[in-house]
């Protein structure tokens, strides 16, 4: 069966393409290469020995999207990753985020109607919860006003899909709310592409560990947590990728309870920033140079998933630990720096 993966050369997208191919799916990738590289295509092929079909395409161009679906009307499912995802950048350039993350979703859903099988997996985020009132966070936690245009595009995206599914019973969709994806494929053939100064914690840790960055700034040491630093639910990107295949199979096998479902994807375990640093030091044998500085604007104190719905309904749970993920991130960092 042919599956379209938009953003399939990106961080989570490329790992999901590998897991789809491992399950025997034929994969077609659309990517505009704005935040990815064709090298990921070689990496995927090196892992699976099957080169996915790739089309460089800007999903903001409606006629190009329509033309693509005319040429691929046998698509059995769409996994939609393609979106801008830098929280800080979204505050400075909201219109870029609303155009890129919303118009592309609308065009894809419009084309879905022309397919015989209308299955759609949406890349969402735990950011929709903001600072949840209760921890761990269940899917019943209220969606709070977004802290950034990026987070708002995920909330709006879920609403667009929900409204579309309400009046199109033959469209089946699942939104996956990721907690914090980290790590890389154990083969070190694919991983998180380092463009510019990393905004996220783990790439900054590994770049500090390899000497690219002088010192990691820990944003805030006075939060009401076990050691004063923020708590997050770090999930190995390979575990996350496998969840997308499980969600897609749920729709392909008509096992979904309704035609719009959503699931939290996390490990269920919260780790502080200092615990993440300790994990890096364990797996690398290095001492990380870091300094606790002021809080970062917009950060929430703590977020980690309540995983029973994903475990019991979706039938998926994480298999890999924080150390496994950190070890894979470190091995990836060493690989790309030694090129
Ligand atoms: C994690 C923790 C920081 C960098 C965001 C988005 C989320 C998803 C992942 C896209 C926080 C601390 C970080 C640093 C630090 N993005 N930190 N020093 O903010 O939880 O989530 O990225 O899908 O939607 O909201 O991830 O990795 O930026 O931060 O101390 O140099 O690490 O304060 O507590 P975050 P993060």
Characterization of this structure:
With 339 residues, the chain is α/β, with parallel strands linked by helices. The protein has a domain at 2-181 and 236-266: Rossmann fold, CATH 3.40.50. It is 40% helix and 18% strand. It is built from eleven helices and 13 strands. It has helices spanning 11-22, 39-48, 62-71, 87-92, 94-112, 149-166, 201-209, 237-252, 273-284, 308-314, 322-337; strands at residues 2-6, 26-31, 53-56, 75-80, 118-125, 171-178, 180-182, 216-219, 231-232, 234-236, 260-265, 271-272, 290-293. Strands 3-2-1-4-5-6-11 form a seven-stranded parallel β-sheet, sandwiched between helices. Strands 7-10 form a two-stranded parallel sheet. It has a two-stranded parallel sheet with strand order 8-13. Helix 2 links the parallel strand 2 and strand 3 (53-56). Helix 7 (201-209) crosses helix 11 (322-337). The protein is globular and about 55 Å long. The two termini are 36 Å apart. The model has no long low-confidence stretch (mean pLDDT 97). Residues 85, 87, 125, 127, 180, 199-201, 204, 216-219, 230, 232, 273, 296, 299 line the site of UDP-4-deoxy-4-formamido-beta-L-arabinopyranose.
